[in-house]
Specification:
By secondary structure, the chain is an alpha/beta fold. The chain has helices at 30-40, 62-70, 87-99, 106-124, 139-146, and strands at 8-13, 17-18, 46-50, 56-60, 75-81. It has five helices and five strands, in the order ββαββαβααα. The chain has a five-stranded mixed β-sheet with strand order 1-5-3-4-2.
Length: 149
């Protein structure tokens, strides 16, 4: 995300991650995912933000975290964002994670991509030209963030 704090990749003890109040409550077939993770390992990191007490708050990846807890795996690979992200930045990270999910249909994916653009432009401003010196975010910037054309 332009002008936002950079995340880092690291492995974190699972017990230090607060699941928080998630919108999604039913993760469906956690046992199968836990078994798959035990057999093949964790394929994608989850996203967390550091909290002020030395722990972490989950931003995205609740199903993977729950499956690894179910499998009693003590650590998890994470994209770690620094403490102090705004609510808009947190929502943007969550949406970017969800837009990459395989089970979204075309309409759902387009809606999420549009919402990500709107959030990014609310956070960083609207870029109106292709100049690399102009601040803000354009649709092309968001497409690059999401790895799409």
């Amino acid at each position: 995300m332009p002008n936002s704090p950079e995340c880092r990749l690291d492995t974190v003890p699972i017990h230090l991650i607060d699941l928080g109040d998630r919108a999604r409550k039913d993760y469906k077939d956690i046992a199968s995912l836990a078994s798959d993770i035990q057999n093949r390992g964790q394929l994608q990191p989850i996203a967390v933000m550091e909290d002020s007490k030395g722990g972490y708050v989950l931003l995205a990846g609740g199903r993977r975290l729950t499956a690894m807890r179910h499998a009693e795996i003590p650590t998890i690979d994470c994209k770690i964002w620094p403490h102090g992200l705004s609510e808009l930045e947190i929502k943007s990270i969550e949406l970017m994670e969800n837009v990459m999910r395989e089970d979204l249909n075309y309409v759902e994916k387009v809606k999420l991509q549009r919402e990500i653009l709107q959030l990014q432009q609310t956070i960083h401003g609207v870029k109106t030209s292709g100049s690399p010196y102009e601040t803000g975010v354009s649709p092309n910037d968001v497409a690059n963030m999401l790895g799409i054309s």
